[in-house]
């Protein structure tokens, strides 16, 4: 099978380990991104979801995807045309699954021959579409694909395949050679190439001129007919198997090409949507084990997709793996900021661009969130017990170099208990090289986490208006009760 390297470098198998999970994607509102990528095509949405769930953790693989995507953004019509061709070829997978199931050799051969004939126009279309391109590719992934298609599916190669398929019609009958072995059973069977050309009128009318080597079976001779079919199946067994393997190889090529092109088309669709909304876009620079996280003018993309407006942007620069705590008054943009950073990390790891003017960060092993959930309706356990159970499950899935985004954790208990539990938990995660982002309304917890970490707070204007900018600032000394009181107008 031709190796397709649009998502990974040659020899680097695509990982299927979980980088994140469905609950995290739901917390981050990934549906808005996937809908923008799919643009009405559910197959693209399905591929996008899997690429987010199983994002690569190797910076070299991430950069490989970025280079291919950059190249694709320079040739969007080519990528979309290739996707249409690949989808047409991959659509025959269902028909081929029936054709390749165990069945008599003649049936296997006829079905494989039919589907191979249907695939040749798609192979020609792929080769011709690449040949029409005037400029060269800048990414190695697309260059390798163009070279492979040119080498394997040139006009000469497809003409030979066309001739081979025509020969498999056996318009002049089937010619086979065999010798007699032990017990007068046939052995050393060999299918011979018959004459190619149009059939004469005698052949069409099944007329013979008295060929001595011709044996006719009476119409009611069932045993003779079964024996003839047995000989025919023996002669066709090998060629039928070869045709089926060839069909399977080409179908698998189209299925994989369609899958990888679906990701690129989805990325192009998303780029067009975000650019139309006026959002900043850049390709991040993934690093490894440098404790780096810095960005400029980062915005939350799903908010823009939902509201069709450009959200407020934020900046951050830190070179530590210590926890980052965001505290302060409600409705200041803390959760939106948290989602924006998490989405940027997810998009970077998947090989996408990021909605920022600049974004640099370490590649991580996992990314999980812990957001508030509805109460357990089965009433099997209390709210705090439910939170602790979910926290335990999430933390167990994390490995060193992971990321955990906590939004109002342990809000179901009092401030003293929450501070004690979360301080110990975050300290343990930090020692395991897991970076935690914590949004909390508890001042005591914020001050405890900020001791060895970075503290951020929403900016508030003099009149109390929210600017939705998150800036470095010491945690508040007290709760936001007076802020809530003044926003309600007092009484």
UniProtKB/TrEMBL annotation:
UniProt-listed PANTHER family: DNA MISMATCH REPAIR PROTEIN MSH1, MITOCHONDRIAL, DNA MISMATCH REPAIR PROTEIN MUTS FAMILY MEMBER
Designated name of the protein: DNA mismatch repair proteins mutS family domain-containing protein
Species: Ferrimicrobium acidiphilum
Keyword Nucleotide-binding listed: yes
InterPro entries noted in UniProt: DNA_mismatch_repair_MutS_C (IPR000432), MutS (IPR045076), P-loop_NTPase (IPR027417)
Keyword Membrane: no
Highest taxon listed in the record's lineage: Bacteria
The DNA mismatch repair proteins mutS family domain, residue ranges: 321-489
Keywords: ATP-binding, DNA-binding, Nucleotide-binding
């Amino acid at each position: 099978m031709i190796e397709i390297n649009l998502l990974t470098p040659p020899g680097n198998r695509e990982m299927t380990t979980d980088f994140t999970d469905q609950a995290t994607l739901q917390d981050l509102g990934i549906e808005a991104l996937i809908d923008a990528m799919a643009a009405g095509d559910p197959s693209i949405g399905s591929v996008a979801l899997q690429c987010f769930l199983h994002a690569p953790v190797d910076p070299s693989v991430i950069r490989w995807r970025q280079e291919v995507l950059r190249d694709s953004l320079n040739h969007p019509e080519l990528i979309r045309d290739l996707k249409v061709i690949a989808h047409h070829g991959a659509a025959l997978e269902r028909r081929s699954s029936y054709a390749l199931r165990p069945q008599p050799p003649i049936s296997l051969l006829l079905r494989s021959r039919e589907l191979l004939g249907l695939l040749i126009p798609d192979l020609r279309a792929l080769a011709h579409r690449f040949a029409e391109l005037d400029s060269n590719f800048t990414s190695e992934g697309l260059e390798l694909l163009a070279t492979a298609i040119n080498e394997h599916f040139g006009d000469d190669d497809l003409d030979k395949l066309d001739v081979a398929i025509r020969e498999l019609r056996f318009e002049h009958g089937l010619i086979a050679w065999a010798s007699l072995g032990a017990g007068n059973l046939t052995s050393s069977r060999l299918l011979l190439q018959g004459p190619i050309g149009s059939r004469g009128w005698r052949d069409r009318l099944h007329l013979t001129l008295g060929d001595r080597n011709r044996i006719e079976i009476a119409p009611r001779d069932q045993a003779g007919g079964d024996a003839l079919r047995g000989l025919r199946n023996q002669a066709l067994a090998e060629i039928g198997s070869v045709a089926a393997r060839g069909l399977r190889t080409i179908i698998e090529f189209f299925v994989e090409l369609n899958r990888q092109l679906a990701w690129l088309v989805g990325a192009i669709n998303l780029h067009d949507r975000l650019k139309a909304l006026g959002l900043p876009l850049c390709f991040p620079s993934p690093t490894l084990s440098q404790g780096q996280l810095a960005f400029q003018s980062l915005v939350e993309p799903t908010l823009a997709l939902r509201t069709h407006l450009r959200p407020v942007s934020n900046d951050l620069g830190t070179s530590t793996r210590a926890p980052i705590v965001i505290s302060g008054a409600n409705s200041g943009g803390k959760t939106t900021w948290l989602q924006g950073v998490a989405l940027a990390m997810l998009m970077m790891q998947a090989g996408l661009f990021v909605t920022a003017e600049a974004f640099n960060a370490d590649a991580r092993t996992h990314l999980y969130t812990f957001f508030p959930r509805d109460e357990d309706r089965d009433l099997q356990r209390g709210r705090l017990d439910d939170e602790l159970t979910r926290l335990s499950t999430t933390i167990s899935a994390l490995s060193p170099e992971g990321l955990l985004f906590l939004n109002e954790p342990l809000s179901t208990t009092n401030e003293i208990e929450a501070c004690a539990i979360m301080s110990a938990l975050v300290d343990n995660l930090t020692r395991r090289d897991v970076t935690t982002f914590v949004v909390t309304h508890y001042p005591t917890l914020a001050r405890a986490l900020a001791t060895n970490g970075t503290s951020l707070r929403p900016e508030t204007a003099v009149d109390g208006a929210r600017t939705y900018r998150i800036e470095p600032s010491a945690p508040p000394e007290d709760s936001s009760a007076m802020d809530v009181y003044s926003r309600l107008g007092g009484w």
